[in-house]
Amino acid sequence: MRSNASLLPRALSAGVAAVCLWAAAAAHAGPLPHLSDYQTVGSGTLRFFGLRIYDATLWSPGGVWFASQPFALELRYARSFDGAAIARRSIEEIRAQRSIPDATLARWEAQMRAIFPDVREGDRLIGVRIPGAGAVFYRDARKLGQIEDEAFADAFFGIWLHPATREPALRARLLGAS
């Protein structure tokens, strides 16, 4: 008959193995259940005057990003923001990068306002770029809506990924540079 003391090392080993398997599975899980083949390309934090605004993670199939291929951008918010303010700020960032007619920007802002929810600390919004279909937005795993406009998708994700972004250090981290 074995003593409880002799079972302890075996139980600890099994527990450690289970935690390692869970961590490995979590590290390779995509940002959404239906994107389980997506892997992290890179991640970083946006700060404004030293305050953490959100943590961003770029995901793609195989963990390699190409602008012409599907990808997902996950933002985990560190603060509360009104959904309309997120849409307005997105338009300001797009306007800073590109020359787009005001009527188009107004239409895009209205579409984003209809989709983007208010967020609180810890909330996670995910935008998925689908070439030929625009962008689909999620709060955690719940679909919020889709904007079927290629020009919008290019401009929106360009906020973070275009070479002219106002946050080049965050872009570099998202693209996997240290």
The protein's oligomeric status is: single chain
Largest sheet: 6 strands, antiparallel
Query: How many strand segments?
Result: 6
| Class inferred from helices and paired strands | alpha+beta
Strands ordered across the widest β-sheet: 1-2-3-4-5-6
What is the average per-residue confidence, as pLDDT, rounded to a whole number? 87
From the alpha-carbon coordinates, what is the Rg to the nearest angstrom? 20 Å
Question: What is the end-to-end distance?
Answer: 55 Å
CATH topology-level name of the largest domain: Chalcone isomerase
CATH class of the largest domain equals Alpha Beta
Number of helical segments with 4 or more residues: 5
Gross morphology is globular
Can you give the helix content as a percent range?
A: 40-55%
Number of domains: 2
Strand content: 25-35%
The CATH level-2 architecture of the largest domain is identified as 3-Layer(bba) Sandwich
Q: Write down the secondary-structure element order.
A: HEEEHHEEEHH
pLDDT < 50 stretches: 7-28
Q: Can you walk me through this structure?
A:
The structure is a single chain. This protein is an alpha+beta fold and 178 residues long. The protein has helices at residues 4-28, 83-97, 102-115, 150-161, 168-174; strands at 38-48, 51-61, 71-77, 124-130, 134-139, 142-147. The chain folds into two domains: 1-30; 31-174, Chalcone isomerase (3-Layer(bba) Sandwich), CATH 3.50.70. It has five helices and six strands. The chain has a six-stranded antiparallel sheet, covered by helices on one side. β5 and β6 (142-147) form a beta hairpin. It is globular, with a radius of gyration of 20 Å. The protein starts with a helix and ends with a helix.
